[in-house]
Write a structure and sequence with these properties.
By secondary structure, the chain is an alpha/beta fold. About 20% of the residues lie in helices and about 25% in strands. The strands form five sheets. It has a four-stranded mixed β-sheet. The structure holds glycine.
Amino acid sequence: MLIAVTRPVSASIAHCQLTFLDRQPIDLARARRQHDDYCRTLAELGAHVVSLPALDDCPDAVFVEDAAIVLDEIAVTTRPGVESRRAELASVAEALAGHRPAAEIVAPGTLDGGDVLRLGREICVGLSTRTNREGAEQLRALVEPLGYRLTTMRVTGCLHLKSALGRLDDHTVLADLPAVTLPASPPFDVVAIPHGTPAFADVLPLAGMVLVPCGFPGVARLIEARGFPTRALDLSELLKAEAGLTCMSILFEGRHNA
Ligand code: GLY
């Protein structure tokens, strides 16, 4: 069964980290409704949604993806690039402990889950304002012995790799190309989207369709033209906190014996 680990929107989300966006007022009640819709959609598409306890003193705690990377073999607790987010880690690690053997990124490495895109046995890691080379190399040391190949890519002008590069399937990504420096022979096909639509590459493929944020029909049409049906979700309040679709869940296959 597919498990989706999530966490409610914190009461303090108005004080979230912002790196590339200007601060705007966030309507907390509306953000919570949008997050409820997101969780309901994951459940409708077959995921077993696990909601972690709220962390109201951690403004960014709804963005659980940044706290861990779950592969088939291990769960890696990250070390987010901003100090304020490290208090989110313990409860995520605890929730994953019954599902996978644990590993972790340690100082001086930093790594946000939003900078890690897995395409089958290929793992792309964005070097960003949050993820440093040391964090990426620690992840490489964990995953390459398991048979994954890790490739690093420089990210500029947006928060995370997944703000600029979104998985459509294991061989195809949506890309805001100027925001990410791809290797000469990337291990995937690229569907380019117009530059300057940060977070709109951050789409979530699930159960034969691709979840996309509302408001960018041109991006949805590009995805549909490649044969992927889309479903749009309203994330307007959450996007003001520099959200993306993938960053509000950690998705992985549960084990029968977990
Ligand atoms: N506001 C999301 C983050 O900066 O981590």
